[in-house]
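Holo prediction. Input below; ligand is FE2/S2 (inorganic) cluster.
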Amino acid sequence: MTATAVATRPRTSKQLTLEVVDVIEQTPFIKSFAFADPHGEQLPGFVPGSHIVVESGAKANAYSLTGSGQNPAAYTISVARAPTGAGGSAAMHKISIGDTVSVSHPRSAFAPVATARHHLLIAAGIGITPILSHARAAREWGRSSSLIYSYRPDAGAHIEEVRAVSGTGLTECTDRKSFRKALNKALLNQPMGTYVYVCGPAEFMSTVLLQAKDHGWPAERLHSEPFAAADQDPGRPFRVELTRSGKSLIVPAGQSLLETLEAAGTAIPNMCRQGVCGECAIPVLKGRVEHRDLYLTAEEKAANDTAMCCVSRAQDQELELDL
Ligand code: FES
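Structure of the complex:
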């Protein structure tokens, strides 16, 4: 998972100041980083599949943690350098041992299902990071799991760790044909109560999810972790009433609620502006939110009392906000 911000914001209690204690070159384009407490304190634990938001200069990006989440002495992430250098990945690749970074507490919308009888893990490229977290946790907790890992020849990030963790449950694919074959076989031969967890590029994930649906897998047993909120349609205009300030604003199609609030002089803390970090949460009093973020859980979305205003909009013509 990764997302890009356009602005920094004041420190909050959600942030931890950590030291870079290890940097490993996984492939020519992917580096791993380990962050630890400068005083040696243990870090907050997390559920498998969690991510943290790392501030790097004027950017903030969300990255999946690769550890299992149990008693972490360090948080480890991997960063693929974007060819354009966009998204802050180039800045992240310049980080060195001894540097200090500001990171958020871990957060997950991609946790394993406790009642699953088997966990079928599927990853491509840098998508291995949250899947490795799941695989490690499955091994530690004695949960049944298997993993299909698709990567370009000689560019398999974390491959030795994945092999060590998954053992005979691992299928490695370095071309599309072998992946399609392995996926088909896996989707047709799973015990009842199996859940699928997939992470990778958008096209890869939609291929896996579509194929699973074609094979009759129910949607609730398919879990995916996008790198960031997908490109969204511009949506319809809607009105927001700010009850504290008395402002009434129109959010036009193609402009986010966050941008509209900012233009009207209402500053909202934010980092990623892509629906992943949770910084731009605003309180909703009335009206149904069209949630488009990857931060809130299904239960939190159903409660309809909070909106991530960088991506979310209104289902109705109007929202009333406690601002
Ligand atoms: S700014 Fe990150 S979720 Fe909105």
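Residues 270-273, 275-280, 293, 295, 308, 310 surround FE2/S2 (inorganic) cluster (CB under 6 Å). That is the main takeaway for now.
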